[in-house]
Each structure stands twice: as C-alpha cells, then as structure tokens.
Write a structure and sequence with these properties.
three-stranded antiparallel beta sheet, globular, mainly alpha, about 180 residues
Length: about 180
C-alpha cells in the first residue's frame, strides 16, 4: 500500500524575521494599551469609544449604519452595541432606524458627542504623534504606511480602509486622527 507523504516542515522565521515579528507583536500589544491609557486619563473614555465617535465625526451628518461603524472601528456588532449603549447614556451618540431601510440601525453623533470629540482629539493626536510619528523620519512614515497597507491587503484583499485619501469622501468636519 502507499505511504502518506511526510508533512512539510514549517518555513521557520530567520533571525531578522524573528526580530521584526517580535517588534511588531510588541507594537500590537503595547500601542493600543498606551493610547487607551491616555484617553482614559485625559478624557475618561476608552480608545474604542473614541474610535466610534471619531468614525461618526468624519461622516456626512455624523451618521453611519451600525454595521459600517463596527467595520470602521474593527469591532463586532455586539461589542459596538454595548459601547454605543454607554455613549448613549452619556448623551454623545443616539441610535435611530435607517429611514432608507428599516432593517438597519443608524448611530448618530450628537452635538454633545461632537463637542467631546473636539475636546478629546488634540490630546489624542499628540499622543499618536509622540508614540508613532515623532520617532520616525518622513521616509520611515511613508514606509510604515506602505507596510501597513501590504499587511492589511494580505489579511483582507478587499479592505479599502487604507486606500489613499483621494479615494474617500471628504469628512464634513475634520477632527480625528
């Protein structure tokens, strides 16, 4: 009878790849925690809550379907629903049925929510600048953008979130990072 082929061994990382991977893992773990700590300390909100409100702030009429907002914020619908509930209790977001299709729910940034984003954005962008952009040269920043795009395309070839700004609709009022 036939023998089954030996499973191929993994294509192990070489020393340089291992160091690059460990650096990336460190960033993936520590950067979100650092951004969350700054936002909690200075604004009393989590990084995810800020992303939700910032996402709404960049859209016409400060309104998005919950499903689109979940995709923008990189969260599940159930997580987003819990967060939007907290933001609703604080008066920063409200939910409404989508008038064009009642199967969907819209998240709407309120005027108080807009004010919170405007108040919070300067400190957040300073922290992003301090942690991510200030340590890099302009060339390294461009390289980081291209590296991020390539990795995101490998993860999700159809994801357009990292396309050039020229391909996106202009936000109604720019505030977020």
């Amino acid at each position: 009878m036939g023998t089954s082929p030996e499973p191929s061994s993994p294509h192990w990382l070489d020393a340089d790849e291992q160091q690059a991977w460990l650096a990336l893992v460190g960033i993936l773990i520590r950067l979100p925690a650092a951004l969350d700590a700054q936002l909690q300390r200075d604004a009393g909100i989590s990084h995810f809550e800020y992303q939700v409100m910032a996402g709404l702030s960049m859209t016409p009429e400060h309104t998005l379907r919950m499903s689109a907002l979940a995709a923008f914020a990189e969260g599940s619908l159930s997580r987003l629903s819990q967060v939007v509930g907290r933001l609703e209790r604080r008066g920063w977001v409200r939910r409404a049925p989508d008038p064009t299709d009642g199967r969907y729910t819209l998240a709407v940034l309120t005027d108080d929510g807009w004010a919170k984003v405007v108040e919070t954005a300067p400190g957040h962008v300073e922290e992003v600048r301090r942690l991510v952009f200030d340590p890099l040269t302009r060339t390294q920043q461009r390289q980081l953008r291209e590296i991020g795009r390539r990795i995101m395309r490998a993860i999700d070839p159809g994801d357009r979130c990292l396309d050039d700004q020229a391909d996106r609709p202009a936000p109604s009022r720019k505030v977020s990072t």
